[in-house]
Amino acid sequence: MPGEDTQRRRAANPPGRRFVLDALHCVVAMAKVCHSCGKKPAFGQSRSHSMRATKRRFNPNLQKVRVLVASAPRRVYVCTRCLKAGKVQKAV
Prior knowledge:
Helices cover 17% and strands 35% of the residues. It is α+β, with helices and mostly antiparallel strands. The longest helix has 10 residues, at 3-12.
């Protein structure tokens, strides 16, 4: 039946997920989290002049860099604070 494959894919990937799994490929998106310290987006409110609140997201300053992970180079997101502090070893 042609709808079975679609139903299986939807069951494996609930709505709101940022990755796609299908029969031929296994693609997983990288989370917007620092690989070194685990810093991730914080949530708060934007306040207009009338003090009306709307939700907003404070993203960390993440850079995609090649670092050595288990003695193999990998591209990961690292926050600029960890890069400046030298907490990760860049791959050449």
